[in-house]
Amino acid sequence: MSRKRSFKPRPRPGRAIVITKELAATRQLETAIRLWFAHSDPISMLILSYNAHEIINAMGKTIGKPSEIESWLKELPPSFQERWKYVNNFCKHAWKDLNEHTPYDPRQAEILMYFASRCYRGVFGTNTALMLAFGFRFLLENPDLAAAESDKVLCKLRMVGDPRKVSRQQFLQDNFAFFSAVAARERPRAGKA
What we know:
Shape: globular
Oligomer: single chain
Number of domains: 1
Radius of gyration: 19 Å
Structural class: mainly alpha
Mean pLDDT: 84
Low-confidence stretches: none
Order of helices and strands: HHHHHHHH
Distance between the termini: 42 Å
Number of strands: 0
């Protein structure tokens, strides 16, 4: 009988951190969101959000809560679906069109972050404060995606100023405490789901 050989790294004791799929997805998604708030590095935002989405979606599928992005993409023409995959593969795979260049719309990363955050909530029961802040601001910037009740919700929130009139960074700075409180209230419910 042969044993399955493990290729897991074996770092020196004291230097290792233990990575779970949840931790990897959370850190990648939150880093992509921080870059989004800072209007910084759209290529890293794409790769981080794509990788986070892949992990969260896989976890969601195992419990019957996959990301909604798959059904959304299936509604679009096959040519769009192929272009959607192309830019990520172009950035990720070394030998993919090595001497070529490709156009990229940074909104693709925003959509990945949006759907990854929604799926994250389905899988883990709640979002982090950063994911909540992103989702709220993203929907303010893209009102066609927001529910009809979003203006009513906006009126009820006690936020600093009108969040639609400040930069993303200022919005995050002004309102992070609010989203942290919301995330903290949601956490106990997540365990009961």
